[in-house]
């Protein structure tokens, strides 16, 4: 046997066959196959024990359950926000904003994780300790205070009546600044309308109890009050495939509410109040109104002049209203008769499509319709919500009286209403009577979400020292000299009040469910820490160890805080039915508002009242000026001549106001909202588009006096002619959020806010715009 | 006769022996070398005797490896479970318990045991279905693990990262559980017992 | 023909009835689905050919002029077709890798991403666009992977995924039943979208069980299925009282009346 080539080949072949006979090759192949299914870069969520905790999302009013997993090695994390079936009004439903809340909580890049101070040299925000950050902010406040300039500190909060709002109000009052503004909402307008006509600021609509509902220009199913609760009521009208309740929608867009309604009255823009008054007139002329309403102040003619009844007959006959609104006469009569016939019927007013607070006179017209229906305090009618019984946070210390408010609230310029960001920003920018030296933005994102956001942004940019207390590195935070991190509702103490229009007393409480970031505090705790650092009267006005302790004081009437926090809500069982005792000066319902009258008298003396009212934007004269009547929106006059009216498309697929647009919500937006190339899609009637020589998918520029946005045209027959409809909630530019940055345009940037007659609140639901081919 | 033909005639078939040698040598190498090549070993954090623990508890495996109320299986017990018996000072005198108490219990740090029977993330395995509904013994799949006095070395596949228990300790991959926990083993048993074998029964 | 007869024998036939007249198109179902099933988000989700939404809400309108226009929404999960002649699910029958099957016990069409080879035959075969291909890996940025649900395995690029009727919830309900010795009741197994819907437009349950609400609703003359004449014999019913919505749900000829297709073709051909 020679060790030659042949022998070697035999050995080699033997070796190869031998190796193949061993498990090596098949095992390797099997393992490689398994290896291809090994996706190391795809995260594997750790399993563990499941637990649930109740809370309430203050941004939506939804009662939710948070699902968490406690993994053995990596510990606790929240994995899901789902509905809480036990919550009396939201009953287990959720919104996209609720279900994607964890994307706000856990979005590392977008969250403010430590206090930040802007470094001028590097142009970047730098992480600092809480001590250092508070020292800088308190130092600046103390400096202004010592210089007698405390009133030049402005604060922009989110909601006035929540714990966070109260703490901020007390802080500013004790510091000595009257310049504090909040987000305004339809609740403010309804409170004013209720105060004017019924002496009652706490009105609600018993939607769940009603079986005939007329909604005037408000997106009942797309962002009214607590949207889940409203749709639970809606589901009740459509139980088991049967239409047991009738919904009538009055508005100029074939919106979701209009489409799901049993009847849609496609009126001309801004004429909803005229329709309501037209219905009032039909009720009267057909003798279908509640006779008790006839006893109300200002119904019949009197010493002051013609009564509501006379004015209706004169100005709002079905024919006239049909002229104004474009709704056919027989439709008006038919709806009014059906409304009168149904025992549980209610007329509803509310926020405009873009979340604007609504027009006071429109709200009064709707309340008048309800008054003629005689449904106050009745099941399925307008109800007065029970008081919550929250305790005050102790004696307030007010040093802010000395200086005039920048926005003129409380003066003849603006006698009623509440403080809003835009008015503050406008006044501050004018520098009259003084400039703002420091601003504190607490919890919100006004640089993006305020009406006419461009103006508010200019104001914030002009402020020499801006402090933002926020969970996110949003549009406002990036402008701030100091950013203080506060938690989302899932990681902090706080509360929320009854949502707009809700029929029952409702209180929501949220508590820290997880500590996702070591340094993040509750917003209340940030304010308290700042007060403690400042010392003096500010610290005295806020003598609480923590936001939790403040809540304990506040909710003392609702039982043990720990138990309440576990349950997370306090909701009255049912609405307070029964006769309403009106707290108006006359003690009766008032079509002619004595409250408004007395105010106007105080401002002017009897003779000059007409002038005062005129300066407040009321064009009607005589008694009509202080009664529910139809004032054509200012934007109507400016439209025409090639200019269209811009209105918002309400949607629950985008978040309300200050809340960030979550990645999941972005995903739900379809091609009718945001086009493939990230451009905003605006809807126009095909005829209107044709008259402007525009076709589907044309690129246009929508320009108003306030600003402009690029968009893509989508032809939609359901849009009223002469209008252009724009989605809300897009056009974000916070660089830390790679998902939402630069997608679409911001409605708030284009919409122009005007002062509502009487209330002075900014309204921006209709804006004259030019739509030009880009 | 050419030289060439002569060489052929003279050539014996003895060199086929080399084929056999090559075959035997390399198949042996394959059998011996495959596990060494494919599997690596990781130590467990410290030694643990199931036997000792089984003697102390009343309900067998379930005393520690229990079900949660929602029907899910806890797997490796939590620190809280350990604390039910182990206080913060060692009870026995083994060095292992000292390690446990000092390095884990006192620091409240969970022990990162290597799990022999860990399945890939795409697998849904219900202990409740097998032990509660079908009444199988733990040992049916896990073998005598509960009687072991010490922990076996934990071997894992260098390519896939999975425990060697999944493929099975027999390098040919023969046998079903307890020696093997691959999909085939699951499917075989399901088939034998007339249990459904649709994809979603075991996959997620 | 009774509802149960439409489907082959088996213990359950899980299905849905979606009330189109209740749906307000808010997208809560879609988001609840994504958070339950670990559906990823790409940085650009405006390209709907690449965007994955197991439960997608489609918008339609009646095309009438102002003010007679109406819109309606069709939430569309996987419809879990059985096929009208024995088990012949469109996607299952084309899969070369057996990465999807029809479970005759539950009537649910599975999808096993680890087994999928990414050929996308099933995507093409599905008449409802219910199947989605992962064109990209989800860019889980630091943090956003924390809320991932451990009951569902996340996927990689190159595989197909789709709605599973939250099968893991059925598994969980069964686990609980095994432990307590009880049965999986109607409310023990509900999909994430059903729970989330604030209008209560979705009803989920066992179509074969006459005590389940879904079986009662699906038997209503107002209930119909999408593209019924294809014979997919699926298990997601829709319901509306609006004729135009119903006409849009299938390719009706002008002289055809709605409601007849199901009767003539539901039994197979």
Describe how the helices and strands are arranged.
The complex is a heterotrimer of chains A (774), B (204) and C (269).
Chain A: H1 5-21, H2 24-36, E1 48-57, E2 62-71, E3 75-83, H3 96-99, H4 101-105, E4 116-119, E5 124-127, H5 130-146, E6 153-156, H6 163-175, E7 180-181, H7 186-198, E8 203-205, E9 212-216, H8 227-236, E10 246-250, H9 256-260, E11 263-265, H10 272-285, H11 308-315, H12 318-325, H13 329-341, E12 345-348, H14 360-373, E13 382-384, H15 421-430, E14 438-442, H16 446-449, H17 453-462, E15 465-470, E16 482-485, E17 494-497, E18 506-510, H18 523-534, H19 536-541, H20 547-554, H21 561-567, E19 569-571, H22 594-604, H23 609-615, H24 634-638, E20 643-649, H25 663-668, E21 681-684, H26 686-691, E22 699-703, E23 708-715, E24 723-727, H27 747-750, E25 754-755, E26 762-763, E27 767-773
Parallel strand pairs in A: 6-7, 6-14, 9-10, 9-12, 10-11, 14-15, 15-16, 20-24, 21-23
Antiparallel strand pairs in A: 1-2, 2-3, 4-5, 4-16, 8-13, 17-18, 18-19, 20-27, 21-24, 22-23, 22-27, 25-26
Helix pairs in contact in A: 5-18, 6-18, 7-14, 10-12, 10-13, 10-14, 12-13, 15-17, 22-23
Chain B: H1 3-10, H2 16-38, E1 39-42, H3 50-56, H4 79-83, H5 95-105, H6 127-133, H7 139-142, E2 154-157, H8 164-167, H9 183-192, H10 199-202
Antiparallel strand pairs in B: 1-2
Chain C: E1 14-19, H1 28-36, E2 56-61, E3 71-76, H2 90-94, H3 121-125, E4 132-133, E5 160-161, H4 167-180, H5 192-196, E6 202-206, H6 213-218, E7 223-225, E8 236-239, H7 243-248, H8 260-265
Parallel strand pairs in C: 1-8
Antiparallel strand pairs in C: 1-6, 2-3, 4-5, 7-8
Explain what the structure shows.
Chain A is built from 27 helices and 27 strands. With 774 residues, chain A is α/β, with parallel strands linked by helices. The radius of gyration of chain A is 30 Å and the shape is globular. Chain B has a domain of 95 residues. Helices cover 41% and strands 4% of the residues of chain B. Chain B has a two-stranded antiparallel ribbon. The radius of gyration of chain B is 25 Å and the shape is globular. The mean pLDDT of chain B is 88. Chain C is of the alpha+beta class and 269 residues long. Chain C has a single domain, classed as Alpha-Beta Plaits (2-Layer Sandwich). Helix content of chain C is 21%, strand content 13%. A four-stranded mixed β-sheet of chain C has the order 6-1-8-7. A two-stranded antiparallel ribbon of chain C has the order 2-3. The longest helix of chain C has 14 residues. The radius of gyration of chain C is 18 Å and the shape is globular. The interface between A and B is large, with 33 and 44 residues.
């Amino acid at each position: 046997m020679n060790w030659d080539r042949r022998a070697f080949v035999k050995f080699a072949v033997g070796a190869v066959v031998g190796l193949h006979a061993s498990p090596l090759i098949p095992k390797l192949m099997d393992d490689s196959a398994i290896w291809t299914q090994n996706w190391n870069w795809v995260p594997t969520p750790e399993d563990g024990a499941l637990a649930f905790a109740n809370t309430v999302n203050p941004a939506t009013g939804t009662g939710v359950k948070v699902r968490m997993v406690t993994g053995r090695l990596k510990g606790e994390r929240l994995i899901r926000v789902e509905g809480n079936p036990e919550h009396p009004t939201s009953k287990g439903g959720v919104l996209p904003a609720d279900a994607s809340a964890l994307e706000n909580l856990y979005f590392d890049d977008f969250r403010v994780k430590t206090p930040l101070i802007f470094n001028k040299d590097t142009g970047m925000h730098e992480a600092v300790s809480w001590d250092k950050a508070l020292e800088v902010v308190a130092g600046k406040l103390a400096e202004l205070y010592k210089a007698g300039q405390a009133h030049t500190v402005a604060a922009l909060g989110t909601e006035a009546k929540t714990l966070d709002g109260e703490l901020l109000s007390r802080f500013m009052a004790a510091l000595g600044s009257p310049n504090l503004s909040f987000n305004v909402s339809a609740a403010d307008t309804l409170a004013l309308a209720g105060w004017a006509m019924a002496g009652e600021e706490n009105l609600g609509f018993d939607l769940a109890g009603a079986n005939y509902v007329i909604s005037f220009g408000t997106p009942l199913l797309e962002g009214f009050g607590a949207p889940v609760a409203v749709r639970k009521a809606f589901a009740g009208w459509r139980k088991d495939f049967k239409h047991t309740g009738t919904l009538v929608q009055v508005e100029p867009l074939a919106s979701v509410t209009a489409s799901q309604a049993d009847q849609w009255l496609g009126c001309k823009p801004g004429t909803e109040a005229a329709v309501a008054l037209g219905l009032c007139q039909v009720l009267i002329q057909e003798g279908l109104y509640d006779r008790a309403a006839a006893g109300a102040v200002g119904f019949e003619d009197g010493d002051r002049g013609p009564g509501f009844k006379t004015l209706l007959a004169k100005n709002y006959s079905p024919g006239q209203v049909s002229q104004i609104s474009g709704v056919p006469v027989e439709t008006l009569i038919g709806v009014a008769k059906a409304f009168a016939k149904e025992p549980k019927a209610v007329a509803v007013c509310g926020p405009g499509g873009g979340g604007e607070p609504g027009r006071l006179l429109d709200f009064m017209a709707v309340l008048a319709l309800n008054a003629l229906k005689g449904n106050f305090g009745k099941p399925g009618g307008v109800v007065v919500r029970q008081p919550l019984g929250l305790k005050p946070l102790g004696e307030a210390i007010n040093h802010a009286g000395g200086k005039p408010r920048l926005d003129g609230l409380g003066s003849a310029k603006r006698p009623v209403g509440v403080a809003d960001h835009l008015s503050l920003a406008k006044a501050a920018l004018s520098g009259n009577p003084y400039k703002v030296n420091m601003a504190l933005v607490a919890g919100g994102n006004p640089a993006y979400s305020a009406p006419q956001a461009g103006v508010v942004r200019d104001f914030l940019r002009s402020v020499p020292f801006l402090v933002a207390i926020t969970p996110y590195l949003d549009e406002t935070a990036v402008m701030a000299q100091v950013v203080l991190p506060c938690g989302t509702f899932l990681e902090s103490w706080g509360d929320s009040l009854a949502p707009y229009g809700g029929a029952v007393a409702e209180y929501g409480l949220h508590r820290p469910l997880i500590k996702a970031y070591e340094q993040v505090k509750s917003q209340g705790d940030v304010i308290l820490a700042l007060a403690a650092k400042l010392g003096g009267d500010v610290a005295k006005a806020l003598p609480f160890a923590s936001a939790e302790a403040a809540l304990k004081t506040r909710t003392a009437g609702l039982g043990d805080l720990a138990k309440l926090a576990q349950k997370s809500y306090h909701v009255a069982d049912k609405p307070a039915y029964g006769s309403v005792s009106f707290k108006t000066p006359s003690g009766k319902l008032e079509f002619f508002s004595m409250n408004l009258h007395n105010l106007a008298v105080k401002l002017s003396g009897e003779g000059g009242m007409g002038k005062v009212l005129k300066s407040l934007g009321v064009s009607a004269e005589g008694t009509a000026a202080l009664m529910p009547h139809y004032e054509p929106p200012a934007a109507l006059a400016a439209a025409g001549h090639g200019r269209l009216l811009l209105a918002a498309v309400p949607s629950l697929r985008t978040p309300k106001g200050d809340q960030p647009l979550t990645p999941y919500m972005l995903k739900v937006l379809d091609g009718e909202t945001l086009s493939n190339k990230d451009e905003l899609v605006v809807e126009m009637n095909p005829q209107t588009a044709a008259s402007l020589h525009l076709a589907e998918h044309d690129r246009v520029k929508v320009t108003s006096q306030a600003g402009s946005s690029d968009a893509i045209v989508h032809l939609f027959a359901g849009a009223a002619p002469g209008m252009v409809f724009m989605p809300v909630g897009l056009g974000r530019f916070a660089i830390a959020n790679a998902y939402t940055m630069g997608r679409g345009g911001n409605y708030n940037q284009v919409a122009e806010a005007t002062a509502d007659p009487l209330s002075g609140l900014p309204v921006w639901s209709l804006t004259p715009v030019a739509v030009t081919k880009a | 006769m050419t030289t060439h033909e002569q060489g052929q005639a003279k050539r014996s078939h003895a060199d086929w022996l080399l084929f056999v040698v090559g075959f035997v040598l390399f198949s042996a190498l394959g059998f011996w070398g495959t596990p060494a090549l494919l599997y690596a070993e990781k130590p467990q954090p410290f030694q643990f005797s199931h036997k000792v623990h089984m003697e102390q508890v009343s309900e067998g495996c379930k005393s520690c490896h229990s079900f949660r109320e929602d029907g899910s299986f806890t797997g490796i017990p939590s620190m809280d479970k350990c604390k039910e018996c182990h206080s913060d000072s060692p009870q026995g005198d083994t060095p292992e318990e000292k390690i446990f108490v000092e390095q884990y219990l006192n620091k409240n740090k969970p022990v990162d045991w290597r799990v022999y029977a860990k399945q890939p993330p795409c697998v849904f395995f219900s202990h409740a279905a097998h032990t509660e509904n079908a009444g199988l013994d733990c040992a049916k799949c896990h073998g005598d693990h509960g009687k072991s006095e010490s922990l076996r070395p934990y071997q894992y596949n260098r390519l896939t990262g999975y425990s060697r228990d999944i493929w099975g300790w027999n390098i040919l991959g023969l046998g079903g559980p307890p020696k093997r926990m691959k999909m085939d083993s699951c499917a075989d048993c399901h088939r034998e017992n007339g249990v459904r074998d649709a994809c979603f029964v075991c996959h997620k | 023909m009774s509802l149960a007869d439409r489907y082959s024998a088996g213990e359950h036939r899980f299905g849905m009835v979606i009330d189109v007249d209740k749906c307000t198109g808010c997208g809560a179902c879609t988001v609840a689905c994504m958070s339950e099933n670990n559906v990823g988000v790409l940085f650009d989700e405006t390209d709907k050919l690449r965007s994955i939404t197991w439960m997608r809400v489609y918008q339609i309108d009646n095309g009438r002029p102002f003010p007679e226009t109406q819109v309606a929404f069709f939430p569309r999960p996987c419809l879990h077709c059985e096929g009208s002649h024995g088990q012949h699910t469109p996607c299952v029958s084309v899969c070369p890798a057996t990465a999807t099957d029809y479970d005759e016990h539950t009537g649910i069409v599975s999808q096993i991403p680890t087994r999928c080879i990414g050929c996308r035959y099933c995507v093409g075969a599905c008449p409802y666009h219910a199947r989605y291909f992962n064109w990209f890996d989800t860019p889980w940025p630091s943090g956003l992977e924390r809320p991932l649900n451990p009951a569902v395995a996340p996927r990689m690029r190159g595989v197909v995924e789709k709605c599973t009727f939250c099968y893991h919830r059925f598994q969980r309900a069964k686990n609980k039943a095994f432990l307590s010795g009880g049965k999986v009741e109607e409310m023990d197994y509900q999909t994430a979208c059903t729970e989330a819907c604030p209008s209560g437009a979705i009803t989920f349950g066992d179509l074969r069980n006459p005590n389940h609400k879904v079986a009662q609703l699906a038997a209503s003359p107002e209930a119909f299925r999408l593209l019924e004449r294809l014979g997919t014999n699926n298990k997601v019913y829709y319901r509306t009282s609006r004729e135009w919505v119903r006409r849009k749900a299938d390719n009706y000829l002008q002289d055809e009346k709605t409601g007849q297709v199901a009767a003539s073709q539901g039994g197979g051909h």
